[in-house]
């Protein structure tokens, strides 16, 4: 029992642990993990991933999504977003989706972590943080996944693009646009550039 208590003392509330992280404090990690999960001290999030819940006035807080993804991927190279983020652009998307997207360099596929579904997309490039330009390009990349009428959304995308910095948007399309996005934005950006030169 002493070893289990020692392991418990090393745990910090609000942290997500991989099984390998706990091996340094335990000589029987699988048995100890089983006992801690049974006691309710740790929550099993997915295979080899555990959470030591943080207590709040309202009960136990769920793990922070970024902490969860960071522990799962074992690095910081990812961008966490959602299809709901497009609703901030004002281009007619209003649906709410229970879908979290994780752009990263390692994993691809759907994974359930702590009862939440994450869709991991392995991509060669993605920005460090969300920008309006990236969201607009990403919306066109993911147009087929949206519930709204694509034609209506695309007409509003053009209106929105006209309010943006041409150079910034060009760079974003070049860096992160898929085939469809490049096809949509190239004539749009050419028109915007011509308009700028005419002024």
Summarize the structure in words.
With 199 residues, the protein is an alpha+beta fold. It has two domains: 2-61, Arc Repressor Mutant, subunit A; 66-198, no CATH class. 43% of the residues lie in helices and 19% in strands. The protein is built from eight helices and nine strands. The chain has helices at residues 2-10, 19-22, 29-39, 65-73, 132-141, 150-161, 166-176, 179-198, and strands spanning 16-18, 43-46, 49-51, 54-56, 59-61, 78-82, 100-104, 109-113, 116-122. The strands form three sheets. It has a four-stranded mixed beta sheet, with helices on one face. It has a three-stranded antiparallel beta sheet with strand order 1-3-2. A hairpin with a 2-residue loop joins strand 8 and strand 9 (116-122). The longest helix has 20 residues, at 179-198. It is elongated. The N and C termini lie far apart (78 Å). The mean pLDDT is 89.
């Amino acid at each position: 029992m002493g070893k289990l208590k020692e392991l418990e003392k090393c745990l910090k509330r609000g942290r997500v642990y991989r099984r390998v992280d706990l091996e340094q404090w335990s000589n029987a990690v699988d048995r100890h993990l089983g006992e801690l999960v049974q006691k309710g001290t740790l929550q099993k999030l997915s295979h080899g991933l555990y959470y030591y819940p943080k207590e709040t006035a309202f009960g136990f807080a769920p793990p922070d999504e970024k902490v969860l993804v960071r522990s799962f991927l074992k690095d910081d190279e990812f961008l966490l977003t959602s299809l709901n983020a497009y609703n901030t652009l004002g281009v007619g998307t209003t649906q709410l989706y229970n879908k979290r997207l994780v752009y990263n360099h390692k994993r691809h596929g759907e994974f359930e972590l702590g009862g939440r579904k994450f869709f991991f997309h392995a991509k060669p490039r993605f920005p460090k943080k969300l920008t309006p330009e990236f969201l607009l390009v990403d919306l066109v990349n993911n147009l087929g996944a949206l519930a709204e009428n694509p034609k209506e959304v695309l007409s509003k995308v053009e209106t929105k693009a006209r309010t943006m910095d041409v150079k910034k948007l060009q760079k974003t399309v070049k860096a992160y646009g898929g085939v469809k996005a490049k096809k949509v934005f190239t004539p749009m950006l050419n028109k915007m550039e011509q308009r700028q030169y005419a002024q």
